[in-house]
Amino acid sequence: GYYCRGYKSQDKGFHLSGAMQHVFVPQERGVRGLYPAEWDHDISFWVPDGFEDAAFETLARSNPDVIAVEKFETFPRNQLPPEAAAFHAHVPPQYQESRTYRVRYSSESKALPKEAARQMQLQLRDMTVASLHVYLR
């Protein structure tokens, strides 16, 4: 059935004793969220010899909504099983190692929807190829 959750008066708020109250403030006030949404996205690419992890981490962290960058997989091309080696045969020979990173997006000062984090990840992919000269997997 229906249960009364409060009443509405002329001050445009709902009232009920003991109820939670939401207060919205302008972003520039510096108020921080207690439990902001976090979105993880992975990116994998083949790297040339001499590639430095710090270069990717610096590029990723140039976005203020990136709160973590973690490398969690590395494998050399010459250790691929035959089926995987055939699948990656189109990769140019100067790319001998694959790396996978997990990038975490979040914002304490604004709502960060899943789609916004996805768009940031797509932009990071493009910037990584253009500036670090890697080959995406």
Describe this structure in words.
By secondary structure, this protein is an alpha+beta fold. Helix content is 24%, strand content 29%. It is built from three helices and six strands. The chain has helices at residues 53-60, 82-87, 114-132; strands at residues 7-8, 14-15, 38-48, 66-76, 95-106, 135-136. Strands 4-5-3-6 form a four-stranded antiparallel β-sheet. The chain has a two-stranded antiparallel sheet with strand order 1-2.
Give the biggest sheet: 4 strands, antiparallel
User: Mind telling me the C-alpha Rg?
Assistant: 23 Å
User: Count of helical segments?
Assistant: 3
Catalogue the unreliable spans. none
SSE string, helices as H and strands as E: EEEHEHEHE
State the helical fraction: 10-25%
Instruction: Kindly report the average pLDDT value.
Output: 85
How many beta-strand runs? 6
Summarize the helices and strands and which ones pair or pack.
Layout: E1 7-8, E2 14-15, E3 38-48, H1 53-60, E4 66-76, H2 82-87, E5 95-106, H3 114-132, E6 135-136
Concise account of the structure shown:
With 137 residues, the protein is an alpha+beta fold. The chain has three helices and six strands, in the order βββαβαβαβ.
Core attributes:
137 residues; alpha+beta; four-stranded antiparallel beta sheet; two-stranded antiparallel ribbon; 3 helices; elongated
